[in-house]
């Protein structure tokens, strides 16, 4: 291979490496619903095709185990990919252990070893990032930062 051929190959390989899409998996928003339930969501981004949530309440996760809650969300709603569990109970002092998977342009991105600690005194919030309104108007929402 001559100098010109080698230079062309370097340019092509560099172009492929530089153009590889990367995705920074967002930290999910966790909302505690009243009287029961919780919601975990991420904002929509270009190319997102699926959001998966795997979690346990008060039981640590081992690697990529399925967990008590194991769901794939295949469509967004109001600009967010959300999993809502209307029956689980998150009480002050509980810990939600979880990991998430996001498929973007056919490539999977995992974020392991996440925890959400339910504080002793939630502050009620009448809205979230959904234009200042809860995703469902029939529940009180408590939002906590992780």
From TrEMBL:
Chain spans, region Disordered: 119-140
Domain CBM39 stretches: 23-123
Cleaved signal peptide residues: 1-22
Coiled-coil regions, chain positions: none
Domain of life the protein comes from: Eukaryota
GO molecular function, one term: carbohydrate binding
Keyword Transferase: no
Gene3D superfamilies on file: Beta-1,3-glucan-recognition protein, N-terminal domain
Residue ranges crossing the lipid bilayer per the database entry: none
Alphabetized UniProt keyword annotations: Signal
InterPro entries: BGBP_N, BGBP_N_sf
Feature: compositional bias, Polar residues: 122-136
Signal keyword on record: yes
Protein name from the UniProt record: Gram-negative bacteria-binding protein 3
Species of the source: Neodiprion lecontei
């Amino acid at each position: 291979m001559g100098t010109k051929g080698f230079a062309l190959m370097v340019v092509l390989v560099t172009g492929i490496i530089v153009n590889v899409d990367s995705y920074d998996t967002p930290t999910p928003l966790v909302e505690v619903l009243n009287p029961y339930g919780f919601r975990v969501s991420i904002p929509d981004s270009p190319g997102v095709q699926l959001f998966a949530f795997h979690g346990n309440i008060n039981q640590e996760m081992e690697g990529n185990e399925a967990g008590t809650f194991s769901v794939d969300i295949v469509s967004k709603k109001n600009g967010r990919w959300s999993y809502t569990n209307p029956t689980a109970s998150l009480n002050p002092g509980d810990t939600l252990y979880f990991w998430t998977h996001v498929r973007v342009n056919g490539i999977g991105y995992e974020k392991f070893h996440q925890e959400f600690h339910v504080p002793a005194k939630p502050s009620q919030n009448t809205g979230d990032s959904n234009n200042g309104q809860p995703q469902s108007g029939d529940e009180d929402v408590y939002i906590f930062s992780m």
